[in-house]
């Protein structure tokens, strides 16, 4: 019999993790639950942060961790460039309203949109995320 395993969170690497956590907290109307400052020798924007969202689709925990050699991904992907390693899918009730809110929070709407009922945006660190109905 296999051991009991339970997925608890997703960790996102970033050059300024506490700043990125603040972006997602605002976007998702929640609060940053925990933070740690930069370790000795790291730049001031380093450190770690965590937030939790709870809604109709359950609870999701996002951790944001400092990546010393972070390279902004390219969307859509291009040969020889930093690839997207993951992205967040965020359900929304009103796609137009949600896109406007995300942009107001600091996201960037990308020009390449592969589906009519999904919008791809970039967070301030360049990670793509999708808003969908």
UniProtKB/TrEMBL annotation:
<dbReference type="GO" id="GO:0016829">
    <property type="term" value="F:lyase activity"/>
</dbReference>
<keyword id="KW-0456">Lyase</keyword>
<keyword id="KW-0223">Dioxygenase</keyword>
<dbReference type="InterPro" id="IPR041581">
    <property type="entry name" value="Glyoxalase_6"/>
</dbReference>
<keyword id="KW-0560">Oxidoreductase</keyword>
<dbReference type="InterPro" id="IPR029068">
    <property type="entry name" value="Glyas_Bleomycin-R_OHBP_Dase"/>
</dbReference>
<feature type="domain" description="Glyoxalase-like">
    <location>
        <begin position="10"/>
        <end position="132"/>
    </location>
</feature>
<dbReference type="GO" id="GO:0051213">
    <property type="term" value="F:dioxygenase activity"/>
</dbReference>
<dbReference type="Pfam" id="PF18029">
    <property type="entry name" value="Glyoxalase_6"/>
</dbReference>
<protein>
    <submittedName>
        <fullName>Catechol 2,3-dioxygenase-like lactoylglutathione lyase family enzyme</fullName>
    </submittedName>
</protein>
């Amino acid at each position: 019999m296999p051991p009991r395993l339970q997925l608890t969170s997703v960790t996102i690497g970033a050059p300024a993790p506490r700043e990125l956590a603040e972006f997602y907290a605002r976007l998702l109307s929640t609060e940053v639950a925990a933070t740690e400052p930069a370790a000795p020798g790291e730049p001031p924007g380093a450190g770690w942060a965590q937030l939790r969202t709870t809604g109709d689709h359950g609870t999701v925990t996002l951790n944001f961790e400092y990546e010393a050699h972070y390279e902004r991904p390219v969307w859509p992907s291009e040969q020889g460039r930093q690839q997207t390693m993951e992205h967040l899918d965020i359900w929304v009730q009103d796609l137009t309203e949600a896109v406007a809110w995300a942009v107001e929070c600091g996201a960037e709407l990308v020009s390449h949109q592969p589906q009519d009922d999904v919008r791809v945006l970039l967070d301030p660190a360049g990670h793509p995320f999708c808003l969908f109905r």
